[in-house]
Amino acid sequence: MKRVGVVLSGCGVFDGSEIHEAVLTLLYLDQHGAEIRCFAPDKPQMHVVNHYTKQPQAEETRNVLTESARIARGEIAPLAKMNLDQLDAVIFPGGFGAAKNLCNFAVAGPACEIDPDVARIIHDAHAKGKVIGAICIAPALVARAFKGEAGVSPTVTIGTDAATAGALREMGATNQAASVSDVVVDAKNKIVTTPAYMLGPTISKVAQGIEKLVKKVLEMA
Amino acid sequence: MKRVGVVLSGCGVFDGSEIHEAVLTLLYLDQHGAEIRCFAPDKPQMHVVNHYTKQPQAEETRNVLTESARIARGEIAPLAKMNLDQLDAVIFPGGFGAAKNLCNFAVAGPACEIDPDVARIIHDAHAKGKVIGAICIAPALVARAFKGEAGVSPTVTIGTDAATAGALREMGATNQAASVSDVVVDAKNKIVTTPAYMLGPTISKVAQGIEKLVKKVLEMA
């Protein structure tokens, strides 16, 4: 049984994990017989966004781990405790949370900072030959983690937005286009990516790429 | 194209919609070509529960519509505006939100009160021959809506908990067992139910019953 860590970043597309992407990741991991372990950083979210009005709620603060626990039905641990020695692969679903709470790419672009535990996990996975899956905007985490490291230029997809793709290239990644139902496999670095809601448009389309990603991650793990 | 209303009750199993059940409902509706319209009541949640510690957060209030919008990616309308004339069917995912925010079955059992819009929607659907789908604990809403109405004894599943099943029978419903991968069809009243996380144990099992429910609802609509 392959053991896969899923790194969540809150609960909701505009300030946390994209819920559909996260749930579909769990669905296909379970369908394909993997053991799932969810993690999230125990720290405040960058923003709380009212998902009905789409306006930030400046007066409110929420914790990334606490909100991520909603998606995981309470079965989740702090990211600080994530140990790659106990896992065969790690998957990062998307949503603005990946670009606000796991790094700050959403506001700082290619000059973004990355959460130290996220950087540790990506480097550990790479060093130990574990597989990394990244969905939607989450390939930005992979690009940021290896920024400035000679010899590692991860090949990832990020959708068709030219500015976003340019920002990834600025961080040293190689951008490769893929449709919403497809994945990009960087066999050398053991990285699998799919654009999901960077392209959309609907959940059944996004599901095709995520199922393919999960199967590929498990196959390579 | 069949038009299906999905009634959400917040975002998280312990105080809102069970997220997996809600997302799987959207997934299979989209996969099977339905047009999806999400709704939720614009009112405060009964509770806010910290899903990591599983403790109520007494000092915090959240709005059912605002939190439900996280699952719907912002594409949602207030339940008061839900009009059965514009829909072919309605589906209620489960989670404690169905038993705390759409009715108060979680605290009042068979003596529970039901949200007036939820009662209106269930009665309207029944009167107009639209199909009703109810997942997990949500069959309690159907039982409560028809409580005391001579001639309507909906046949529904609710899992294997004897006390819960007894409470549904006290409200006048007929309880029928089903496995997590199966549905109960009340053809006379056009009601389809599946136990989902009342039985579990994992997302891929729950998905089997929900996909069957969605297909049956669309077939009967």
Compact overview of the structure:
The structure is a homodimer of 221-residue chains. By secondary structure, chain A is α/β, with parallel strands linked by helices.
Tell me what the structure shows:
Two copies of one chain form a homodimer. Chain A has helices spanning 19-31, 64-71, 96-100, 105-108, 116-127, 139-145, 162-170, 203-220, and strands spanning 3-7, 35-40, 76-78, 89-92, 131-135, 155-156, 174-175, 184-186, 191-194. Chain A is of the alpha/beta class. Chain A has a single domain (3-220), classed as Class I glutamine amidotransferase (GATase) domain (Rossmann fold), CATH 3.40.50.880. In chain A, the strands form two sheets. The first copy, chain A, has a seven-stranded mixed sheet, sandwiched between helices. A two-stranded parallel ribbon of chain A has the order 6-7. The longest helix of chain A has 18 residues, at 203-220. Chain A starts with a strand and ends with a helix. The interface between A and B is medium-sized, with 34 and 34 residues.
Please tag this protein with its features.
homodimer; 221 residues; alpha/beta; Rossmann fold; seven-stranded mixed β-sheet; two-stranded parallel ribbon; 9 strands; 34% helix; globular
